[in-house]
Amino acid sequence: MKFKKLLHWTIILPVISAIFYLGGFLNGGVGGNIIGVILLFGTVFAAVHHAEVVAHKVGEPFGTIILAICITILEVGLIISFMLSGSEGAMTYARDTVFAAVMLILNGILGICIWLGSRKYKEQFFITSSATTYLVSLVAILVLTLILPNYTQSIRGPFYSNAQLVFVSLACLTIYGSFLMFQTVRHRNYFVVEEADHTTHEADPPSILRTFVSLILLIICLAVVIFMAKGLSPVIEDFVENMGAPRALVGVIIASVVLLPEGLAAIRAARNNQIQTSINLGLGSALASVGLTIPAVSVVCVVYDIPFVLGLDMKSIILLALSVFIVMLSLSRGKTNHLYGTVLLVNLAAYIFTVIVP
Predict the structure, then answer these.
(1) Nearest by Cα to 93 from 109, 75, 115, 110
(2) Helix or strand or coil: residue 125?
(3) Residues 294-327: pLDDT tens digits?
(4) Please, which residues bridge with residue 335 across strands?
(5) Long-range residue pairs from 190-194, CB within 8 A, at least 24 positions apart, any chain
(6) Distance (Å, whole) CA 76 – CA 81
(7) Which of 36, 114, 159, 303 has its CA 20 to 30 A from that of 267?
């Protein structure tokens, strides 16, 4: 690699962030916290950049899978960091973050992609089988993880007993693993659209050396983000408390930090008339967010005997059901229009408003 490439911001920023954290500058007053937040966001973008380099090397649909898994690792790390802080409301951080991620993806990322893409191209086309496959898997996992805990009898809801957590975690991993097999082996053609015209020229795949370096930097970025988030968790909690907002807003903030880079990637794909890639990124992230995050958090909570809430309240269940139903209708015909995007964005506004003003 040339020396100039070593000075790229995606390499320098994680190093600066690591030095900033290890040097103890993170909790150095308001100025240190503001710099820490900026470095945290920058490192998240750097992590996704390196994940995209690796994803470009392996190609589709493996690329979107790698991105989704990286986002999930970030999400799990942030959730565990906040839960281990032991603050009030820590028991609900996993549920609130996963629920927020799903709502932001279904209504926000997909809504913006559909709206912007349709405004530019009027209609965009995708493979309906891919959307159906995503949604079938996602709905099953959502019901098992976020709704069923309210109605079990072994332990009073919205909790699961340890045995129930183990079963649900295995069920999520089975569904997600089966989906990956479906996506990458048996029906890979459902998720890849062959472009009729090659108006957009993709860069050549990166070299093996560059891919290996990006993989190492990706691991460093993930570690830096998790540790910096742990250090900033009291600041974020105090910010939400000073606003007078419910603790659920912390989950929205965590999900927003994690999903922002991938959301921008999905929006960029929609503007380039690649709505299939946007759907793969969005729904793939939603599926990984629930199907991998809940089992990972469950393992940590069972090992360290940390109680955590999974079941949603009735208001959240209604909003989730509305979002899933609208997305299913919007993706049922294999083409999009701006009305679908508008409705999804209104759903997003309703969700965020009812989080702040319950």
Answers:
(1) 75
(2) strand
(3) 998 898 888 888 888 899 999 999 999 999 999 9
(4) 125
(5) 190/127, 190/129, 190/130, 190/133, 191/60, 191/61, 191/64, 191/127, 191/130, 191/276, 191/280, 192/60, 192/61, 192/276, 193/126, 193/127, 193/274, 193/276
(6) 8
(7) 36
